[in-house]
Inverse folding.
């Protein structure tokens, strides 16, 4: 079988031959049908590194069908569709328990393509449920990559007064507008800070969700503080690289900066809720797909995503 690996050297991703894994006790073998490349983490925490990367973390949003059951495996059947936290490969082991490689059985009402977004959708739902949001609040979501676009939708569950989406890439702004953001600010055409202040009549944002991350996220976090009202909340969703995050004590006086999620809901419960939201249309993911490529072109897909962020967002790999 083939699997994606990141070998030593910047951007050195390639397909290699590997043995089909054999399921052990409580495990089952999944034959992948689709997987999603998560540009933010897979490129900026894997692709750009000079050192080799563990193949098991090359991808984590995959869908497939159970091909073989290991001994003492209950609660799953051969042929059943599942979404798995698994790397880009033709086959991968999974289980119904544990934190890594855990599978989630899929309802018939959700497609394989849609299901590849479930992992990120569940995380977005957890982040937004962890963020204090009032019905009178203006929520600004900085960054409209996959995570930002999902957060801008899942925060609707909290019924804020309006959601303002901000990005520097026109393609992402266009997609965000289609997905129902109340206002979309194209930072390539206008100053986002001045625009948000104008839109709020100088009151600034009650809640800022920072989804940019990477090297650019440092500047985005500085922007978040400039558009935050006194006593407001910044939710840091993205992961960062490069310089330390700048903290402006004056801007943050009386406010709150949140890192990650703090919920009584389990991840599995949020994944079930996210699946229901996709099925009934509250959470739209098909608009996030810009490219569908055969698995043989996975390395080219990584190169393209890194070199041309203005042309691509969600890239689906077709394994059958």
């Amino acid at each position: 079988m083939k699997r994606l690996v990141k070998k030593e050297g910047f951007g050195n991703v390639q397909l290699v031959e590997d043995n089909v894994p054999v399921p052990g006790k409580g495990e089952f073998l999944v034959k992948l049908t689709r997987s999603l490349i998560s540009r933010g983490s897979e490129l900026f925490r894997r692709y750009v590194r000079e050192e080799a990367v563990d193949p098991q973390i090359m991808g984590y949003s995959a869908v497939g069908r159970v091909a073989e059951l290991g001994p003492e495996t209950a609660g799953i059947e051969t042929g059943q569709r599942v979404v798995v936290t698994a790397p880009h490969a033709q086959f991968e082991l999974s289980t119904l328990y544990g934190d890594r490689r855990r599978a989630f059985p899929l309802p018939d009402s959700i497609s394989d393509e849609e299901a590849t977004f479930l992992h990120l959708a569940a995380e977005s739902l957890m982040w937004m449920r962890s963020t204090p949001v009032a019905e009178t609040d203006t929520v600004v979501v900085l960054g409209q990559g996959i995570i930002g676009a999902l957060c801008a939708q899942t925060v609707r569950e909290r019924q804020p007064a309006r959601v303002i989406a901000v990005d520097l890439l026109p393609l992402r702004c266009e997609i965000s507008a289609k997905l129902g953001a109340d206002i979309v600010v194209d930072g390539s055409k206008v100053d986002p800070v001045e625009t948000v202040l104008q839109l709020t009549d100088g009151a600034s944002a009650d809640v800022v969700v920072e989804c940019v991350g990477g090297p650019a996220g440092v500047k985005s976090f500085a922007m978040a503080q400039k558009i935050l009202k006194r006593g407001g909340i910044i939710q840091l969703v993205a992961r960062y690289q490069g310089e330390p995050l700048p903290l402006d004590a004056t801007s943050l006086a009386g406010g709150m900066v949140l890192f990650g999620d703090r919920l009584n809901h389990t991840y599995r419960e949020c994944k079930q809720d996210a699946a229901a939201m996709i099925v009934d249309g509250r959470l739209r993911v098909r608009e996030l797909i810009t490219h569908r490529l055969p698995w043989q072109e996975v390395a080219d897909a990584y190169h393209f995503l890194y070199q041309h962020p203005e042309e691509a967002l969600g890239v689906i790999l077709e394994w059958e």
Notes: Residues 2-117+285-318 form a domain with the Quinone Oxidoreductase; Chain A, domain 1 fold (CATH 3.90.180.10). The chain has a mean pLDDT of 93. DSSP finds nine helices and 15 strands in the chain. The first strand starts at residue 2 and ends at 6.
